[in-house]
Design goal:
The structure holds two protein chains of two kinds. Chain A is of the alpha+beta class. Chain A is built from nine helices and 20 strands. In chain A, strands 6-7-8-3-9-10 form a six-stranded mixed beta sheet, with helices on both faces. Chain A has a five-stranded antiparallel beta sheet with strand order 13-12-11-14-20. Chain A has a five-stranded antiparallel beta sheet with strand order 15-19-16-17-18, with no helix packed on it. Chain B has two domains: 41 residues; 192 residues, MetI-like fold (Orthogonal Bundle). Classes of the chains: A alpha+beta, B mainly alpha. Chains A and B meet through β6 and α2 of A and α7 and α8 of B. Bound molecules: adenosine-5'-triphosphate and magnesium ion. The site of magnesium ion has 4 residues of chain A, from α1.
């Protein structure tokens, strides 16, 4: 990837009244990259996007586009376009006119507008929808119009605020692939907001994990998944068993009453640390062969694998395995140095408990919520 | 429908429309008797159209209604946009309360107080006989304003707050984004407000009576001053014409509305 930096946010802070929403945010975005802001609801993702678009001015800090300071430059003079959370299509205009909107504002000749709009509608697979009223389109089609409308202006950066949030799962997957391919074909920088970690992992070049207005980690999807910086990131991205451990010395860590070889070094002797073990990395073996021994408390079939909750010294581990285990049976776990990731203690240490409250019932509840949203 | 309820409905309509029907019938009377229908003629319509006084008053009324409706629509829409931007708090609700008060106060109070204000202002700037087109126009704009604001505000609340931002994102200045993105969505409310303002202004007698001078008579005032003497059938003719025009206007707006809704349904 090219190393040209297209947007640079320096020490951005912003408060609404008493409440500080963004705290000293530092972030640069490289040209042509797909960068995702990922974090729970209310962490300040939309706010960050609105600062880049120019709808909000930071209390302090600098917004820099291609080495030019953009503080105080109004939205219509910035070379970015936004796809809003709820599309914000113009209801009084048809599909063609919606896409042509920005071009008309620029006073482009009618002939060029026509070519451009047709190109854009072809790009998003909406040929033949020109005359349709936007209210008569499905959610996915409206989404495509919003994308075509933004891209028609040939922005150097496209901001997308949870663009797929309102679509159902199947459509969301299709659109993810489509967006990614559009981004690669046109070579545009995407700044993408989502709270769906799977979406972030599968689409991004770079992921920025945020929580309560603070950036927790910036890295590639692999970095973020394999080497989370703290317990928040480990918990938010994928499933993880987070344990209290002691770094006995370089390459040796002790947790759950057992000493493990690991690949991490650079800690103090006997430093307290957080240890992450991903459920899919653990190997299930007969109890007497395991490094750790525990009792199976529940097992759930998930299609690709079984999800097994194992009680080891009062910590409920989650293990994913393709083999069925009887509830109440004793099993052993094998953990290789590769499977262990060590993190420094942070404010998030101990915040995320084990899997004791995790049950099928809980799962069903969250499924129902998702359906209602759709 | 059962028979009793049919009869009931018929009676209600009869009650509502009997006076108007009687008036319409007598406007075509060939004599000026109010007791006897002597024969059909358009005599009183001819008399009406040759009455310079009435024709001038009609012209005045129309000019006043159009001007006051237009001004109230512009000011009222701007006010509604401003109010809509405020956060929901005590300040906003008190502003809305203040906006609504003029609709509740008896017209006679509004009329008298406005007259007082105008005369007082006249004194201050040292002019006699300030009451006339200017003052009655101000008065009409004032009592029309709340109706415009109240018909535009709900439309504003229904429109996506991000529309204006989307337009700016695509290169519009803030002002232009209002005209290109927000205005089209709230235009039904604006039109409703304008029609309401127009009809209220046409209809108004009490406030007009207090805030205009001898130089500018509106139709209701002209009719009122003529009825102080003896009511002649040309007044029936005039009232018939007004009734018919309002009826036509009503049918037209209804048809337009029905068409608009049909179109929307087709699109969805
Ligand atoms: N105009 C505003 N006035 C006051 N507080 C605001 C305003 N806009 C946002 N906030 C607050 O700022 C915080 C961050 O909001 P933001 O919209 O950036 O969250 P988000 O990460 O986009 O969340 P979501 O995933 O739910 O969209 C929230 O606590 C929100 O309540
Ligand atoms: Mg948001």
């Amino acid at each position: 990837m090219e190393e040209k930096i297209i947007i640079d946010l320096k020490n951005i802070s912003l408060s609404f009244g008493e409440e500080q929403i963004l705290k000293d945010l530092n972030l640069y975005i490289r040209d042509k990259e797909f960068l995702t802001l990922l974090g729970p609801s209310g962490c300040g993702k939309t706010t960050t996007l609105r600062i880049i678009a120019g709808f909000l001015e930071p209390d302090s800090g600098e917004v820099i586009f291609e080495n030019k300071n953009m503080n105080g430059v109004p939205p219509h003079k910035r070379h970015v376009n936004t796809i809003f959370q709820r599309y914000a299509l113009f209801p009084h205009l048809n599909v063609y006119e919606n896409v042509a909107f920005g071009l008309r504002v620029k006073k482009m000749p009618e002939k060029e507008i026509k070519t451009k709009v047709n190109d854009m509608l072809a790009l998003v697979n909406l040929k033949g929808f020109e005359k349709r009223n936007v209210n008569s389109l499905s959610g996915g089609q409206q989404q495509r119009v919003a994308i075509a409308r933004a891209l028609a202006n040939e922005p150097s950066v496209l901001l997308l605020d949870e663009p797929l949030g309102a679509l159902d799962l199947k459509l969301r997957k299709d659109m993810q692939a489509e967006l990614k391919s559009i981004q690669e074909r046109l070579g545009i920088t995407f700044i993408y907001v989502t709270h769906d970690q799977e979406e972030a992992l599968s689409m991004s070049d770079t992921i920025v994990v945020m929580d309560s207005g603070v950036i927790q980690q910036i890295g590639t999807p692999q970095d973020i998944y394999n080497e989370p910086k703290n317990a928040f990131v480990a918990d938010f991205i994928g499933e993880s068993n987070i344990l209290d451990g002691i770094m006995r010395r370089d390459l040796f860590v002790e947790f759950s009453g057992h000493r493990f070889k690991c690949l991490d070094s650079g800690f103090e002797k006997d430093e307290l640390v957080d240890v992450v073990v991903r459920p899919e990395d653990v190997e299930v073996v007969p109890a007497e062969q395991g490094m750790l021994k525990g009792t199976v408390t529940s097992i759930t079939f998930k299609g690709v694998h079984f999800e097994i909750i194992v009680d080891i010294k009062d910590y409920k581990w989650m293990i994913q395995s393709t083999d069925y285990q009887e509830v109440d049976s004793e099993i052993g776990l094998l953990i290789t140095p590769d499977d262990i990731h060590i993190m420094k203690k942070s404010v998030y240490s101990g915040v995320f408990g084990d899997y004791s409250s995790f049950s099928e019932e809980f799962d069903e509840l969250s499924d129902v919520n998702e359906e209602v949203e759709d | 429908m059962k028979l009793p309820s049919k009869i009931y409905t018929f009676l209600i309509f009869l009650f509502l429309y009997a006076p108007i029907i009687v008036m319409i019938v007598f406007s075509f009377n060939s004599t000026n008797s109010t007791g006897l229908m002597a024969g059909f003629s358009l005599r009183w319509y001819a008399v009406l159209f040759s009455n310079k006084n009435i024709m001038q008053a009609l012209y005045n009324t129309l000019i006043l209604a159009v001007a006051s409706a237009l001004i109230a629509t512009v000011i009222g829409t701007a006010a509604a946009v401003g109010i809509d931007k405020w956060k929901k708090n005590l300040f906003r609700s008190s502003v809305m309360g203040v906006t609504n008060i003029p609709m509740m106060t008896p017209e006679i109070v509004t009329g008298v107080s406005m007259m007082l204000l105008f005369v007082f202002m006249g004194r201050v700037i040292g002019r006699q006989g300030i009451l006339g087109f200017g003052t009655i126009l101000i008065a009409h704009v004032t009592f029309n304003l709340p109706y415009v604001i109240l018909s535009v505000l709900p439309k504003l609340r229904q429109t996506d707050p991000h529309l204006a931002e989307a337009a700016q994102d695509l290169g519009c200045t803030p002002l232009r984004s209002f005209f290109k993105a927000v205005l089209p969505s709230i235009s039904p409310g604006i039109v409703t407000g304008m029609i309401m303002a127009f009809t209220l202004s046409l209809d108004d007698f009490i406030i007009s009576y207090f805030t205009t001078g001898p130089g500018f008579q509106t139709l209701p005032i002209a009719i009122f001053s003529m009825t102080k003497k003896r009511v002649k059938p040309d007044m029936y003719a005039l009232s018939t014409l007004i009734f018919v025009s309002i009826l036509v206007l009503l049918i037209l707006t209804n048809v337009a509305q029905a068409r608009g809704e049909n179109k929307k349904k087709k699109n969805i």
